[in-house]
Each structure stands twice: as C-alpha cells, then as structure tokens.
Amino acid sequence: NMYQQRIPREKSAAMFAEALEYFPGGVNSPVRAFRSVSGPPLFIEQAKGSRMQDVDGNVFLDFCCSWGPLIHGHANEYIEEKVMKTVVKGTSFGTPNEMGNRLGKLILDNHPYVERLRFVSSGTEAVMSAIRLARGVTGRNKILKFDGCYHGHVDSLLVKAGSGLATFGTSSSAGVPESVAADTLILPLNDRDLLEEILSKHAHEIACIIVEPIPANNGLLIQDPSWLKCLRIKAYKHNVLLIFDEVISGFRVGFAGAAGYYDVKPDIITFGKVIGGGFPVGAYAASKEIMDYIAPVGPVYQAGTLSANPVAMAAGLAALELCLTPGFYELQAEKTHAFATALEAYAREKGYPMHVPHIGSIFWLAFGTDRITRSDQIDPANMEYFKMIHHELLQTGVYLGPSGYEVGFISGAHSVGDLEEAVGKIKAAMDVAFA
Ligand code: PMP
Q: Where exactly are the transmembrane stretches of this chain (predicted)?
C-alpha cells in the first residue's frame, strides 16, 4: 500500500473522529480535512521555530506556517513577549488603544502606497470591506476579478466563470445568490486585449478590478510585471479602482508587498496573514481621500467588535518590526531560491516532471515542466503526484499544506540546515512519487 502509515497517527485519528461529531467534516476550515491527501489530518499540539509536533509525538519541518502568517516561524520569542506583556492588561476594550496607533504608524511610515488604513479581523473581512468601499466611492455595482485568484469567502467573489471567454459569474457556492454572482465579471489572467474590450464595454458600471498581484491560492501563478502595470494603466484609463489583494503577498515579498515589488500603485490594498503576527488581523488601506469614505467620516459603513484589539495589534507590531530588520526579506528570498533551485536541479537530473516556482519566501511544487501562469494550465491529474509526495513527507517529518493547489512558505526560523534537510527528504519523496 502506497499510503501506508509508518508513523504513529492514532491519536490524531481518534481526535479527528471526535471532531467529526462537532464540526462539519471535522474541521473549521475545509482544506484542513486532508481530503485531497491521505490519512486523517494531524492534530498539532505545539510548535517552535520551523517545527511542529503532533499529538502522536511526530515532529515536522513546517512549510505551511499556518497558511502564511508565520513569517518568523512558530512561537517567535519577540512576538511572544510583546503579546504576553499586552494580554495581562486586558484583551479587548472596544476603544481606541495605543497598540493600534503604533501598528498603524509602523505600516504607514514604511509603506509608500497607502495613507490611511482600517484594521479588521480576517483577510475575507478586508476584501469584503474593500469591495464595499470601491462601490461606495464609485457608485457602481459590478466588480471584475480574475480566474485563478482567490479572495476569501466573500459572496461576490465566490463565483466562477460561466461559459464563454469573459462572462458575468455564476455562483460557485450554494448560498451565494445568482443575483450577487451576476455582478462579478471574470476574466482570465494576462489577457490584455480581452481586458481592454471588457473595460471599453462595461467600465461605466464597474467599481473595481480586484487581483491577487501574486496569485498564490491556485498554485503560484507568477505574473508578468508588465501585465500588472497594464492593469494599472487600464484602470486609470477607464476610471475604475484597482484593488490589490495582498493578503498573502503583503509584508511577505517585501514590506510594501507586491505593490512595492513590482512598483505598481493600486488604489486600495487588502492585508491579512503576516500583518497579525499569528493573530486574527486583516486591514484595508488606501489614500486619505478614498479612506475618508469610511464611517464615521464617510457614508460607507464598516465596523468590528474585536477590530484592532491590543493583543492582536501587539503581535502584528512585533512581527512587522522584525520584518523591518535590514536584510530580512533578502535573506528569506535567498534561502527560498536556493531551496527551490536545488529541487529543480534534481527534477531535471532525473527527468521528473516537476518545477518549483518561487517569489520572495513563497514557493510551489508544480508538476509538468512548462511555466504555469494561469489556473487552466494546471493538470488536475498531476495532483496524484502531490498526494504521494505529501504522504511520503509526513512519514519523514516534513509538513506541506494538504493540497497541491496550495503554496508553501519559508520563515525566518527556517535555517539553511533545515532547508537542506527538507531538500534531501523532498528528493526522496520525489523518487517515490515519480518511480
Ligand atoms: N485573499 C487572499 C489572497 C487570501 O490568500 C486569503 C486566504 N487564503 C483571503 C483573501 C482570505 O483571508 P482569510 O482566510 O483570513 O479570511
């Protein structure tokens, strides 16, 4: 049996069986259920730095990093200390607080493209609020998104393309009204002519274009910088707002995220993940002029009971302070590049159909040999390779997010030695998967 367990997994299996009695599918977020890989999900008990330990006592080098927030690894001592000092003074007051100011200042002082921001509690909330803001500013209802970009479980973004090349969407989830989906236009990534055609026809009813500038939820679909610049130019030309969803890329590929990386200034940016240092934080940000549409100054309503609570702000502040350490991003990118190119060299040497797109400290195990920049270039049949690699790696102590469509993250806590260890283990897993 290819998926035989060579590590103890009984306690995780028992806890998952119990969880099935409490939560739909046993989980509180779907991919966690391990449905596209083998075995029960691991129940993690504790983690430190680059490694996590499950309830059966297995230890894994972690490349999921809680799906992106943990850019400094698990239980970072600097973040922990700031959180501990804050938490004993009370966890939430529902009032303005100094920690919020300090995180706001740190971000705005170091991010050249935004002047005001509003903290929320998740990436989804940030995107939902940014869309409402764009609609409020423009007085238009329709939005334009790209196939292969994920923006959280916002109703108007849980849509898929209908038949035809550029269409108004149809709902991709039960519970999302077709009337809502019909306000979302879906285009393929990097089709400049079609974008121009659609904007010429529909710009007067479109509030915004929303894009993941570094699409990282459907594989890692690294885009041509010139296309992102083209989006900017066309949004100006047709007078629609441009939203960069930087929930993954923000503070990850550089302090100024993808906007800084590509030097493209969007009108609104959404943040999540890294911004909260491992706590539930999101934010949306823009110019003062645009953000002044938000209540209590302007007519666009948005609020949150736990928004900018001091504990989450303290964690985010500590995390982003560490990000500003000189050379931090360069070092993460260097380590990630060495890791990815070592795997690619091995694939080439052995003739295995795999390559490793990477940017900053984000990487993806991609199957096939051609560069993949659109979701329709991903062959679902190749996910069988991922499943085997994922299983093999669990047996040898490496944890990847449990889906071949998900990217991996490298943190400041991943040492060069950790990465060399992982390369050796991934090579061995490739030998099994491609045998
Ligand atoms: N936008 C992007 C680009 C994301 O990657 C995600 C989460 N993977 C979201 C939005 C939603 O964020 P959250 O899960 O915090 O709601």
A: none
